[in-house]
Amino acid sequence: MNAFTLGGATTILDGGLATELEALGHDLSDSLWSARLLADSPEEIVAAHAAFFRAGAEIATTASYQASFEGFAARGIEREEAAKLMRRSVELARLAGDVEPGRHRWVAASIGPYGAMLADGSEYRGRYGRTKRELRDFHRPRMEVLAESVPDVFALETVPDVEEAEALVDALDGLDVPAWLSFTTSGDRTRAGQPLAEAFAVAEHAGIIAVGVNCSAPEDVLTAIEIACGTTTKPVVVYPNSGEDWDAQKRSWTGRPQLSPALARTWRDAGASVIGGCCRVRPEDISAIAEALIDPER
Length: 298
Hints:
methyltransferase, alpha/beta, two-stranded antiparallel sheet, TIM Barrel, about 40% helix, methyltransferase activity, 8-stranded parallel sheet, 12 strands
């Protein structure tokens, strides 16, 4: 297998896996989110990954964002089966990458924040009342299991605050899997309110190969890139939401999409090495971004 590296030409990431699974007709409203389909409909996860690969994505992020031993246990799934399902997330993404022989595809094992397991939106607030040691002890076991399936990279993503980022980096030690570290932000700060320069400084750990933002508004991405480039020499990864707003009470999206191919070119020119999308970003959006980064007329 080729060693996973970033830098040089822009790498295209996939979009919202859960969004695509919902478009395929699945209700993801329970606490396991897309991780539920690892047991119930694994073939649909392959189909969603494959759709993004066909659209031009070079990296697939796995359906493990909300997967944890604690979360599976709450659904009556025992530890051995939970570990099997987590490993399956990497295997399914790898299988989807085989849809076009001759083109190498990468698999990023998604590691969502502690708040994702709580399924109450607290990943957008941080500050869960847990110590750094407790957060590390939560993340480390599932990272160990996912590492057994040999992903190309960990996506430590949607991280809302610096303390959890430090816990994730500590948990990375000894696993022999590189990682990118991606924060969710508001303006020039993490969702917990820390300056992004402070957050991005955590990426100086040797195991972190890139730093950036995801699950943020498109309008906040350029500021994040500028701060990242002023804080670290490591590659920058960006994959925002569509720009629509989530209404937690009505459980629906409002507003109009703001993500555009022109924005993707701006982000590349500002220094982003990996560009993709998060919630509400479909394969056709990734296709438009990929084409725009190749064709300056688009």
